[in-house]
Specification:
The chain is mainly beta. It is built from one helix and 15 strands; from the N terminus they run αβββββββββββββββ. The chain has an eleven-stranded mixed beta barrel with strand order 2-3-4-5-6-7-8-10-11-12-15. It has a two-stranded antiparallel ribbon with strand order 13-14.
Length: 263
């Protein structure tokens, strides 16, 4: 029984992505960022009796410049289905000044004691492009995403819970200004959260964010190939601490499903 959730997770999420991204006709080059990025993250959710909730996330990079925030609302349609909307506001001072609006639909299910979550999303994203000697402009593009997660609660004593979460997200960017692959960005994440009480947790997460490109070939003055056209995978390791507050949770029925935290 313990193996079935992981088999379903791999079959539904990982295998199709590997097949789609294979492109065996092109050589593969993997490149890692020079160092991991460390984050301090705070999440807060305020629940209604129905299980719908408002949420906010703030995230600060610790070893480089970068602060982000997310504001959103999730409507609980049935016991297992949710629909949500969120915004990432434009924050002055960041290297890339951008904002985005997202719509998503998600479903929670269960195999044995393991909780499964599947989510589909659409995002309209805008980047502020600063040009030398010319007015700045905003570029708009569309992002489609699929996310899957698996989690389980392990009771410790009478009140506290230890909750491991594995998640995988794949995004497709509809842009014409860069040469992209079929799937353009993925994020694999493992998180371990400790709930001393059911309304807050302290956790640590480890993630690998990968951007997928096709790098054009390079040639010398005589037309000889220096580097062929190739698949380029850019990997970045992400490590963070998280404080998670679940406000007004006690009135919600089936509230163990409220801890997935995939936004």
């Amino acid at each position: 029984m313990c193996f079935k959730p992981f088999a379903a997770f791999a079959a539904v999420v990982l295998l199709p992505i590997v097949v789609i991204q294979a492109q065996p006709n092109l050589p593969l080059v993997r490149s890692w960022a020079e160092m991991p990025i460390f984050f301090a993250t705070a999440n807060a959710e305020h629940y209604q009796k129905s299980g719908s909730f408002l949420y906010a996330q703030m995230q600060q990079a610790l070893n480089q410049k970068g602060f982000s925030a997310v504001l959103g609302y999730e409507q609980r349609l049935t016991r297992h289905w949710f629909a949500g909307i969120s915004v990432i506001p434009s924050l002055p001072g960041n290297d890339l000044n951008q904002f985005s609006y997202s719509l998503n639909g998600s479903h929670t299910g269960q195999i044995g004691k393991w909780q499964l979550l599947k989510q589909a999303s659409y995002t309209l994203q805008s980047d502020l492009v600063r040009l030398i000697g010319a007015p700045s402009r905003r570029d708009y593009y569309h992002v489609f995403g699929l996310t899957a997660g698996i989690a389980r609660n392990f009771s410790i004593g009478t009140q506290s819970i230890l909750r491991p979460v594995l998640s995988y997200q794949a995004n497709i960017f509809l842009r014409s200004d860069i040469y992209l692959r079929t799937i353009d960005r993925t994020r694999a994440q493992a998180e371990l959260a400790w709930f001393p009480k059911e309304n807050y947790s302290i956790g640590v997460f480890f993630a690998q964010s990968t951007e997928y490109f096709i790098a054009l070939g390079r040639f010398d003055a005589n037309g000889n190939v220096i580097e062929p056209e190739r698949r380029l995978n850019l990997n970045t390791a992400l490590i963070g601490l998280r404080l998670h507050l679940l406000l007004n949770l006690q009135q919600v029925e089936n509230r163990k499903q409220m801890r997935m935290l995939l936004y």
